[in-house]
Design brief:
Shape: globular
Order of helices and strands: HHHHHHHHHHHHHHHHH
Distance between the termini: 49 Å
Number of strands: 0
């Protein structure tokens, strides 16, 4: 198994991006995993008990940070490397139980991107289970493989029902599109891992079942293709541009101070912008850092609407509006706050923006 990151360093990284977990009572079970990890994982590298404990730690770190501004980088390990280190069926069963434990945690505790009970966390667990499923096939563990596949199928059916209900009931664009982009993300996570399974391990039927579900050339499994394809189309047309990594927001470290500062799904960032303008977590210089990062985001991706809505929210909730920040911004950004699309955005009320986006959504849905 690739060594990856030291456990103590990983815990430090979680503290760096989500220190508020340590003062959040419902997070005590996952914090306990971090607290035990450094002293506990002292076995020889590769020892069975160390593999399971290290997997549990990395899953906990992924759960805690994947929806924060600076996620820990353990994806390859929890999806691939840690499973290839397991040869013993009993150890495999313990490791699979760690995934079940992680998937049962409440995503709302660590994410502002949960809609109707669905979130990107569900896709993370789909991808981890896909890695486990590939290893079960390689080890010749049909019982384990069947159990993991059943859990994947149940999750896909749950997500399909939630999205189909939103469409059929005429739910607002904000709800339906949030579900569409979540579903597209989750299906993509699953597909990428399954597609990487070595062909020598077999599993052709499962590979067909789980790859490219949101694409026209994807699975033809009954009852799934239309809903998943629709989610993929809506995400591509309306949401993909609005939910990139927002890397510029990693620079203002003050954004890591509280759960309430986590970024929701875009492009509906008006309320988040108003919060940035008023929260006690930030002082004025730190608010200015956030404004600068948002302007940089806009300049890098002028068609993206979310950062404009965040700036509009900050403008409305700040006495003097965005011009109040201008003198403290880098010289190259000062004029940007009072011209172009930023100037246009601050004059658009949130309800008018939502109505405009609703119209775009209905047109896309009809076509």
């Amino acid at each position: 198994m690739k060594a990856g990151i030291a456990n103590s360093v990983l815990v430090d990284q979680v503290r760096n991006t989500a220190a508020w977990l340590w003062s959040t009572p419902p997070a005590e079970p996952v914090v306990a995993i971090f607290e035990r990890s450094v002293d506990e994982c002292v076995d020889e590298p590769g020892a069975a008990s160390a593999v399971v404990r290290t997997l549990r730690l990395r899953l906990a770190a992924h759960y805690a940070t994947v929806a924060t501004f600076v996620p820990t980088d353990v994806d390859a390990h929890i999806r691939h490397h840690m499973w290839t280190a397991i040869d013993d069926p009993a150890v495999f069963a313990e490791a699979r139980a760690c995934v079940d434990e992680s998937a049962a945690r409440d995503a709302t505790l660590v994410s502002a991107r949960v809609t109707c009970g669905l979130s990107g966390h569900d896709g993370e667990w789909l991808s981890v289970r896909a890695g486990a499923l590939g290893r079960a096939l390689a080890l010749g563990l049909p019982g384990e493989a069947a159990e993991i596949a059943a859990r994947i199928d149940a999750e896909l059916e749950r997500e399909e029902r939630a999205f189909a209900h939103a469409v059929d009931s005429g739910a607002p664009a904000r709800t339906t599109l949030a579900l569409a982009t979540t579903l597209a993300h989750n299906l993509g996570d699953l597909s990428r891992v399954v597609d990487a399974w070595p062909r020598a391990y077999g599993g052709a039927e499962l590979r067909e079942r789980y790859t490219r579900l949101g694409h026209a050339d994807g699975s033809t499994s009954p009852g799934r293709r239309s809903a998943f394809m629709l989610a993929g189309v809506l995400n591509k047309q309306l949401m993909a541009l609005e939910n990139h990594r927002f890397l510029a927001l990693r620079k203002p470290r003050a954004l890591r101070r509280g759960r309430d500062l986590l970024l929701p799904l875009g492009p509906w960032f008006d309320e988040w912008g108003e919060l940035i303008a008023s929260t006690e977590h930030l002082d004025d210089s730190e608010r200015t850092e956030v404004v600068a990062a948002l302007v940089d985001l806009h300049l890098a991706s002028p068609r993206q609407e979310g950062c404009l809505r965040a700036l509009a929210g900050i403008h409305r909730a700040t006495r003097g509006g965005l011009t109040w920040f201008a003198s403290a911004l880098p010289a190259r950004l000062r004029k940007e706050t009072v011209r172009g699309r930023i100037r246009e955005a601050v004059d658009i009320r949130p309800e008018h923006f939502e109505a405009k986006f609703e119209k775009r959504f209905r047109a896309a849905l009809a076509s």
